[in-house]
Design brief:
about 325 residues, alpha/beta, TIM Barrel, eight-stranded parallel β-barrel, 11 strands, globular
Amino acid sequence: MTKQLLTLKDAYKDYFKVGVAVSPATLERDGDLIREQFNSLTAENVMKPEEVQPEQGTFTFEQADGIVDFAKENNMTMRGHTLAWHNQTPDWMFKDGDKPASRDVALKHMKEHMHAVMSHFKSPFYAWDVINEVVADEGEDILRESPWRTIIGDDYVQKAFEFARQANPDVALYYNDYNESHPEKRDKIYTMLKDLLDKGTPIDGMGLQAHWGLEDPTLDNIRAAIEKYASLGLTLQVTEMDVSVFNFGDKRTDLTEPTEEMMEKQAERYEAFFSLFREYSDHIDSVTLWAASDRYNWLDDFPVRGRKNWPMLFDVNNQPKESFKRVVSFK
């Protein structure tokens, strides 16, 4: 008789929560897999600013509420994503009627949005991504250009955390970013977080998005990033994990299914990543995958439009891949 593999949530019950990003559609289509394997949910899109307050004072919580209801019904916890971002944010937040918003008006919009959203969503949330992707990928500046920065100034990041803490004193507040393990950006993120903490900003944790590939980033760079962020006294969460089978810059579109070599390399990478997470589980309290399976994931269209990718632990039929087997089969 074939030995039954542990589920992700059972295999890691002594280490950290294992979460997944979901939408109303994936809950309906893949709900059985999600119930079976995960104990934490993140809304992939429907809690972002343009989704919950598309017009000032008009809140559209229905789709997000459905995800919260699913979590409660299945004894799951939730990560909130995301309160402030330069993308997927409605234009009205940066305006005062027909004219550009002043600093005071933009801060008012940010504060009121955060208070409304965090007041609506309380249980069973254990963390919120307060602000997302504010660090520049290149150049001398630490912060990227964005409407928030242009209108408010560099202290908009500090203000976002202060508003979030006022709105909910009990939930953990996170900064979230990608390329978080690349040395140049890692050091910028560290510098920003240390400066904010030195100013007394209420930040509880760092979210490592972990959109990784078969070759990049290196394990040494991931380890260095974990240790550097943890040295600030922050709790870490892996927030948006997937392992693309295409290297960045690879534009090929000829594959209708992944090669055996891709799947073996992906399994080796997932195994190594989760081994590292277990090693640092004193600092990491949740690991969230950015889709339940290869049936649907955002990399199907990014960065090559219309190209299929196979970055998850379960295949297009929601069956466990070798990557999954390696992740749950450890001693």
